[in-house]
Design goal:
Blueprint: E1 2-4, E2 44-49, E3 61-64, E4 66-70, E5 73-78, E6 86-90, E7 96-108, E8 114-121, E9 129-135, E10 144-149, E11 155-161, E12 173-180, E13 183-188, E14 191-196, E15 206-212, E16 214-225, E17 234-239, E18 251-254, E19 256-260, E20 263-267, E21 272-276, E22 282-294, E23 300-307, E24 315-321, E25 330-335, E26 341-347, E27 359-366, E28 369-374, E29 377-382, E30 392-398, E31 400-411, E32 435-439, H1 451-459, E33 464-471, E34 477-479, H2 500-503, H3 524-531, E35 537-542, H4 548-561, E36 567-571, H5 574-583, E37 589-592, H6 601-607, E38 612-614, H7 621-629, E39 633-636, H8 642-651, E40 655-658, H9 661-674, E41 687-694, E42 704-705, E43 720-721, E44 726-731, E45 735-739, E46 747-753, E47 756-758, E48 761-763, E49 768-776, E50 782-783, E51 801-806, E52 813-825, E53 832-843
Parallel strand pairs: 32-33, 32-40, 33-35, 35-36, 36-37, 37-38, 38-39, 39-40
Antiparallel strand pairs: 1-2, 2-16, 3-6, 4-5, 5-16, 6-15, 7-12, 7-16, 8-9, 8-15, 9-10, 10-11, 12-13, 13-14, 17-31, 18-21, 19-20, 20-31, 21-30, 22-27, 22-31, 23-24, 23-30, 24-25, 25-26, 27-28, 28-29, 33-34, 41-42, 41-53, 43-44, 44-52, 45-52, 46-51, 46-53, 47-48, 49-52, 50-51
Helix pairs in contact: 3-4
Keywords: Signal
GO molecular function, one term: phosphoric diester hydrolase activity
Pfam family, one: GDPD
Length: about 850
């Protein structure tokens, strides 16, 4: 049976920031937790289908693959890894809705094959589209995902998560996805599993199903229109222009401003502008805007985010053009006091605003940071906004006649100050600056993913440079972020469809500026050749999907040039990281995720054999604590403001990825000069500071070890060349333990060492092992087990290890604990003065 109803007038999403706990009509979907509420009265079932008629419903359009109705269910079959997956479309264009379905994998080619609910797909099934997928092995780290099929017919997987259980074959599972603008929530059997704010939406997309490498049957498909999320914050200013005249408090500065047909209309002037509203530090500014006429496609209108009441420069604005889906369709821009524009952040929306069409826009501002929303979808992040002590709001425009309606301004709570973490050895600590990573090289000073950008990152003092690699039709790995050549070269087409010979003819610099005309697309091999002698490390991102033979090509090149020790790999595609780890376990890798960290993040990172994870948002303090306690690293991308750098440094993240590595280096040096030793474990009275000086390679081959701290000398003597490594030994400063408690409960003393660092160079604390001893017996004390250094196959002291302990009921008394240290280093350690901290913890 098929039920369709005429939906009410579609409601515009304001900002898509808040989420709601919702139930399907039959109580199917609920937010995690005991509370359950009935559906809102405004919710409307748009489509319900149980396939009881035995025929494919007339509103279902089979696009590709095999689709039929049998035994009261819809069956879809699609081939694996298809360039055109099996898909069928149905439903309505809705901004806010819930998509429910009961599904069953009837057969799968392997556990990685999948089906998806299409959340925004054209009626003819053409690319691009947005979907929510699940695999037969839904319990895997990428068992559930939000993903996009791009206009170039490639995959862009934005968010992944494991389901509570595996879907398997032959069992019904009820799934639901809540969509509110660009916000999506994945529900498994009524429990919310994860969410995203990165859904790609279009003006004409509807719903559908997609199947790859499996036969899947469906029943009880329901599409329910729901309300947009409730606005956050307190409404402090609103205007709908129903009074017929210019409202009090609206001050025209330049151009013609009037009220007509219940809207504010602006025209004329060079930069027409009008000011109004309060001064706020944290707020959301919303309005319905419409271009009525434009001089040309480059002209714009803007929301004034911080503008003087008299409209004088300088001011900060958020602009939009009619051609919103191309070029600089949306932007954050500043008019400087000298009358010059500074436009640091530009982006695009999923479709054009055009003329004669209402668009709901919203800007969320927190201090000098902002988010741009277009019809409920976040399309751009900005930082380093120009803020003043008394700037208010307004509209500005150039070369257009535009109308405005339904202004709403909500005051928001400030973002919370980051909570400081305790000192954790082996990581960057709260208040300490992490490594500096130049995003796509020094991409704010040279064309991204080119040798000039990479060389400038090294010259600016970055510790790492990040690059993206993909491969040509003939299997040559090259540097390229997009899956097509169009944006960053004078060529065109998908990189997988063109040869290396063609790529070598292209200009990858002229788009950036005349200084870089003739710059070429580098091959991965060219970068590795350069890296051999460079004073910088590489964070290597694999884009798209990589077959194993092409992965092996990159592995062979890394080994050929001997730079494995300078590289960390990363990818949004967890399957790539998993296969790379199996093919090349010696190469460290990190998972790459958009937004915040996924649930069970420590288990997820360990599942894929990675050394850490790199989110785009600051982790929560507890999340970071858990990762650091597990010995895992966190780099945060792509952070371009001093306020973000300060917040992340206060948290203690291990690295910051930025388009401005030179500026971050200057900021870090200034910060460290003003905060010597801030947050360092060396300030802990229960810590011992270690220092090692590694001589130049041309010297006699000795390590000279000396203490550099307040707890006495930890002297590891002179290292000797042991043939295939350097070796040094010594002893910690003894630890006196006295226990005279009547109950004589058990106690233990453990220790852990951080990385040894010298400037931008480092080596892991894993290289340091020990053999604990009881120097003076008493109190039932026993020595902990010996720990082998990494060179001998152990984990070293990079993980917490017991120095000594006593069992429950031990005799009362005192013992002196010590340990003989065993350091073994590779022969290629760079010369320098290295320091590390050994932190001791007593439990009793």
């Amino acid at each position: 049976m098929s039920i369709t109803t005429t939906p009410p007038r579609r409601r515009r999403v304001i900002a898509g920031l808040a989420t709601a706990a919702l139930l399907a009509a039959g109580g199917i979907l609920a937010a995690a937790g005991p509370a359950q509420a009935e559906p809102e009265e405004a919710d409307r079932v748009i489509l319900h289908e149980d396939f009881s008629s035995g025929q494919l419903p007339s509103t279902f359009n089979a696009v590709a693959g095999e689709w039929r109705v049998a035994d009261g269910r819809l069956l879809g079959t699609g081939a694996s890894y298809a360039g055109s997956p099996a898909r069928i479309t149905f439903g309505e264009t809705l901004e806010n809705y819930r998509f429910d379905a009961t599904l069953r994998f009837d057969s799968v080619e392997n556990d990685s094959r999948w089906h998806a609910l299409a959340l925004d797909m054209q009626p003819d099934g053409a690319v691009p589209w947005q979907h929510a997928a699940l695999r037969a092995n839904t319990a895997a780290g990428n068992g559930l995902e939000f993903a996009r099929r791009t206009a170039q017919n490639t995959w862009d997987v934005t968010d992944t998560h494991a389901a509570p259980a595996a879907a398997g074959v032959g069992a019904d599972v009820h799934v639901s996805v809540v969509v509110q603008g660009s916000h999506g929530e994945w529900y498994w059997e009524g429990t919310k599993v994860f969410e995203t704010d990165q859904l790609a939406r279009t003006a004409t997309g509807i719903q559908g199903l997609v199947v790859d490498g499996s036969t899947v049957s469906y029943d009880e498909i329901t599409i329910t229109e729901i309300d947009p999320p409730a606005p956050e914050g307190a409404l402090v200013f609103d205007e709908d222009f129903s009074g017929g005249t210019l409202p009090e408090g609206f001050a025209p500065v330049e151009g013609d401003w009037r009220v007509a047909d219940g809207r504010l209309v602006g025209s004329g002037g060079n930069i027409a502008r009008i000011t109004f509203g309060p001064h706020l530090d944290d707020y959301r500014f919303e309005a319905t805007v419409r271009f009525d006429a434009v001089a040309n496609a480059s002209r714009w209108l803007a929301l004034g985010l911080d503008i003087q009441p008299n409209g004088a420069a300088p001011w900060q604005q958020a602009a939009v053009r009619t051609t919103t889906s191309t070029g600089s369709g949306v932007e954050f821009a500043q008019m400087n006091i000298d009358g010059q524009w500074y436009v640091p952040f530009t982006g695009t929306a999923p479709y054009d605003a055009g003329t004669g069409r209402d668009v709901r826009v919203a800007i969320v501002v927190h201090g000098d940071r902002a988010e741009w929303y277009f019809d409920g979808q976040k399309v751009l992040d900005g930082s380093q906004l120009l803020r003043s002590a008394d700037g208010i709001l307004g509209f500005t425009q150039n070369g257009v006649t535009a109308s405005y309606d339904d202004i709403a301004v909500y005051e928001l709570q400030p973002l919370p100050e980051p909570e400081l973490l305790p000192c954790i050895p082996g990581t960057v600590n709260p208040g300490q600056t992490g490594v500096i990573i130049g995003h796509r090289g020094y991409s704010s000073r040279a064309p991204e993913n080119t040798m000039p950008a990479i060389e400038r990152a090294e010259q600016a003092g970055a510790d790492y440079f990040e690059i993206d690699i993909d491969y040509t039709a003939d299997g040559v790995p090259v540097l390229l972020h997009d899956d097509t050549l169009d944006r960053t070269t004078d060529g065109t087409g998908r990189i997988h469809d063109v040869t290396w010979d063609y790529v070598q003819t292209l200009d990858a610099g002229s788009w950036y500026g005349p200084e870089f005309v003739g710059t070429k697309v580098p091959s991965f091999e060219e970068v590795l050749d350069w890296l051999q002698d460079a004073d910088i490390h590489l964070l290597l991102e694999y884009k798209g999907d990589w077959p194993n033979p092409y992965l092996q090509t990159t592995i062979d090149l890394i080994e050929q040039y001997g730079v494995r020790g300078k590289i960390i790999a990363q990818s949004f595609n967890f399957d790539i990281e998993d296969r790379l780890n199996r093919l090349y376990p010696e190469l460290p890798g990190m998972l790459l995720v958009g937004g915040s960290l996924p649930a069970s993040v420590v288990d997820l990172v360990k599942q894929y054999g990675q050394i850490g994870i790199n989110p785009s948002s600051a982790p929560g303090p507890e999340e970071l604590r858990a990762l650091h306690e597990a010995g895992l690293k966190v780099f945060v991308w792509t952070q371009n403001s001093a306020s973000a750098w300060a917040n992340l440094t206060a948290l203690g993240v291990d690295g910051i990825i930025t388009d401005y590595p030179g500026e971050l280096r200057e900021w870090s040096e200034a910060y460290n000069a003003a905060n010597p030793g801030a947050g360092a474990c060396a300030d802990d009275e229960n810590a011992q500071q270690l220092r090692v000086e590694v001589p130049e390679a041309s010297g006699p081959g000795e390590f000279i070890w000396n203490i550099d701290g307040t707890n006495g000398i930890v002297d590891l003597g002179v290292a000797e060349n042991a043939g295939d490594h350097w070796a040094a030994s010594g002893s910690i400063n003894p630890i006196r333990v006295t226990d005279t408690r009547a109950a004589s409960p058990e106690w233990s003393v453990s220790a852990q060492v951080g990385d040894f660092t010298s400037g931008g160079e480092s080596f892991s604390g894993k290289n340091l092992g020990w053999t604990p001893t009881v120097r003076e017996s008493g109190g039932g004390a026993a020595a902990g087990a010996a720990v082998l250094p990494g060179f001998l196959g152990g984990d070293g002291l990079s993980v917490s290890s017991t120095l000594g302990h006593a069992q429950d009921g031990h005799t009362r008394g005192s013992a002196l604990l010590g340990a003989d240290l065993d350091l073994r280093l590779p022969l290629d350690v760079v010369d320098g003065a290295y320091e590390a901290t050994l932190t001791l913890t007593a439990l009793g």
